[in-house]
Structures
1.
Amino acid sequence: NAGVTQTPKFQVLKTGQSMTLQCAQDMNHNSMYWYRQDPGMGLRLIYYSASEGTTDKGEVPNGYNVSRLNKREFSLRLESAAPSQTSVYFCASSDGTGAGEQYFGPGTRLTVT
Amino acid sequence: GENVEQHPSTLSVQEGDSAVIKCTYSDSASNYFPWYKQELGKGPQLIIDIRSNVGEKKDQRIAVTLNKTAKHFSLHITETQPEDSAVYFCAAGGTSYGKLTFGQGTILTVHP
């Protein structure tokens, strides 16, 4: 039981390049989330998926797209990376039946030059 | 939407002392208040949570208190140990599909 896994762990992009961050969970959770973490700003929600087949914007969605590929996988895509997207990205999941614990992956550290 | 403020941003204590971190929230509809601990290079991990029908909850050396009227909640760590050194986040949620709004984080350092 791996919990929540994320790939890659580290990535360096040049401005304008695109990439997809992958996330998978093996806990049969309904809801999945993408956050970014910047110094002094906590964790900010980018997008979430309440259930398979649905996605919604969070607090900071501009510049990102997401895909809930199936119940296990939730990917985050940067179409044209910008230096302002340099951050640590975390994926999380929860069973989604109301308020409850979110389980986080180990994170992806992204640098955009 | 919900807004969560967390203080202090850094906290330094001696081993054995107590540590208190405070959070305020804005949405009176929020009913779930978790606390997460993040160690260096890892994702956040839940350490304790409280729901709005409870005023206080304890788990060994950690406790959380909630004042719904004042819209604030606090984390208390007693008999701190060096392994308690980490970043702590409060959060509020419960109104929509498990979404949480996080505070800015507190860097806790426990000196031996």
2.
Amino acid sequence: DTGVSQNPRHKITKRGQNVTFRCDPISEHNRLYWYRQTLGQGPEFLTYFQNEAQLEKSRLLSDRFSAERPKGSFSTLEIQRTEQGDSAMYLCASSLAAGGADQPQHFGDGTRLSIL
Amino acid sequence: AQSVSQHNHHVILSEAASLELGCNYSYGGTVNLFWYVQYPGQHLQLLLKYFSGDPLVKGIKGFEAEFIKSKFSFNLRKPSVQWSDTAEYFCAVNAYDYKLSFGAGTTVTVRA
């Protein structure tokens, strides 16, 4: 299966610790997105990249959050000094840029973060 | 910014019943509309999308959706559901800025 891959699947950590998640998109996709989903809600946009450039960040993405896509392939999302409210499912998606915004985004299985 | 409203939080129905899930969005410009499905334990998958042309779009597994511009709606339908359609369904919209805005989702439970 050459879908979007996310690691780890689950992360449990103590409040105040730093965590990093990884996303490997579908190989030919040059757009990569991060979303956050909490219980009973749909995914909420966090940020997206086209190749290695981070083009937009949501106001949801506080200074404690940083995302990178250094070579335009995989991406990492780091949360520093985690707080209880960071507990959520973090989803990664990828799409082709060619053709515009109607290109469907393909989602990974997500990383579930639990803050103790 | 776009916002999406899904009318039903949880729908329970029997096999062979018809399904219709409501979705309304708020945005004055041109939008692309999507329905995604998440089966238990699986990732979000695209059911169907609308971006232009025929407002009645057909997707996978017998689903279809109708875009009614005047009502800002994109309702999902299936004439006869199966037990395997038990899942969570999300309506989503984007515009020129690519990022998707999702509704809160509707959990559909199909009883055998």
